[in-house]
Amino acid sequence: MAAGFAKRRRGAELRAWVVLLAATGAVAAGPAARADGSSLGRIVDAVVRHGPTTQLPPHLSMVLGLSSVEHAVPMKQAELRDGTKIHTFMVGAADHADLVLLDYDEASGITEAYRLAPSGTLRKAVSYSAGATANEQPAAKARAGLSRELKFWTDWQARPAGMR
């Protein structure tokens, strides 16, 4: 499951990166931003409007609580590479309140997945390696990881358009 997902993510990386580059610049200054005007809201809007559609794998969808049975959930996504890490921001294609952030470390092969509320509040977090069972993360560790991931995305979104 995870190996195939990682290959699809790497294959779509450049396309999603370019889409998010264009989208966030347009959304940050335009009327499409959410009413709350938050950085997270602007990123969500950019991903919904311009991100390619993909699917959250069946097992991960169930483990994170997006589905009660193992089936893929359609998502809109953006991905950015930062060294050996691939950061993925996913928004439910049908329900934009379904937010998932993935942090894949190519060096270790470990993925940390965070499901969050539209406010940025952590709902659930798991960590897994390709072919291994996903392990739920303790709240304190998960919140620290989620904080780093949210900072990555909001810092990136806050950069001037020419520096993204």
Features of the shown structure:
single chain; 164 residues; alpha+beta; seven-stranded antiparallel sheet; 4 helices; 40% helix; globular
Can you characterise this structure?
The protein is α+β, with helices and mostly antiparallel strands and 164 residues long. It has one domain (2-159). 40% of the residues lie in helices and 28% in strands. The chain is built from four helices and seven strands. The protein has helices spanning 2-29, 39-50, 58-63, 139-158, and strands at residues 53-56, 73-82, 85-92, 99-105, 110-116, 122-129, 135-136. A seven-stranded antiparallel sheet has the order 1-2-3-4-5-6-7. α1 crosses α2 (39-50) and α2 crosses α4 (139-158). The longest helix is centred in the N-terminal third of the chain and has 28 residues, at 2-29. The radius of gyration is 15 Å and the shape is globular. Residues 5-36 have low confidence and may be disordered.
